[in-house]
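Note to self: user wants both folds in one dump. Writing first protein now.
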Amino acid sequence: MKPTTMSSSINRDTAWVYLTLISGTFLAWIPLIGRSLPVADDFAIMRLVAHGGLPGYLHALGLWRPLGHCLPIWLFLQNPSYHPVLVLLTHLLATILLFHVCQSLFGGIRLPLLAALVFAMFPFGYEAQTWIITCNYVVAVLFFLANLLLLARHEELNWPVPVLFVISSALAVLTALSNE
């Protein structure tokens, strides 16, 4: 009976942590949600994506930030309301990843929760909400934290080193393709 009690306690703690992180992120970012308007460099990238799609973008700019530019611009062209939701959900996922990274490195719940809440509410993504092509900052952080979590939990995962290397390298490449 004890393992069941311990398991339900862990699930309850996890549920409260996720609820706290989701609530904190939404409360901090909800004023930024709204229709984004293109500014500055958005117009040049929008023209490339609108006329040529991903192939046109890659032909003109090569592999310069394709993950951080193309998807947000394409979503904006589909519906201007999609971009802010993409940024918010990407930041929320990065916040949860940061919690798990901190929990792997430091243990416990309080310190990782505090670090993740500060990250969740810190408006580093404000520019990504107001300037469409700067979504790459949030996307790069997401891939970086996923890689960091993978490396922090490598002993728990017990994967062969070549598999770990390939996944970690892929996440590093995705980070690089999101930003410089």
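First done. Writing the second protein, which came from a different request thread.
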Amino acid sequence: MIYKIDTTLTDELYADFNCFTAVETKTAKRTVIISRIIINAIIVACLVAIALADGFSTFLFIYAVLLASLSVYNTVNMKKIVKKSTIRQLNKIKKTGKVPYSPTATIEFYEDKLIDISPNSRIEQNYQGLDRICVVKGRFILLYTSNIGAYIVPEEQAKAQVDLDEFIQFITQKCSSVEYY
């Protein structure tokens, strides 16, 4: 074993991970831009349809201002909206007695694989199975196994247990796709 990191995840940290994955990654930014273009195109199409049907009116102007305000609000508050939605979904899931993550885990890093040991499971993952690694300065290191699934290593917790710079250098050599944020 080269590194061993004990992690503790909270709802807040898990929500941050989901928000990052849904809004801030390169793939997500592309998706967000496309959805914004589509939403704005729909708004313009609605306004044009109303203008053609009724002509320019006070109602059309008010409708345009409301839709433009909604679009700007959505654009500015995308991260907050996604985070609140994630927390709401987590609360619903928790009512069933389950959580979509393990609150505590130990991740052992070897030369050729990592082992995730939680109270309910033990998962061995070869580094070749990692989709990409995202190093998010000041927040976490994410070892993605798919577009939405990742091992979450909180930076503060890792920093307290290992030399963070050496660990990042080690782990980023294990995957061909590494992104820094």
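Dump finished. Worth passing along: The longest helix spans residues 26-54.
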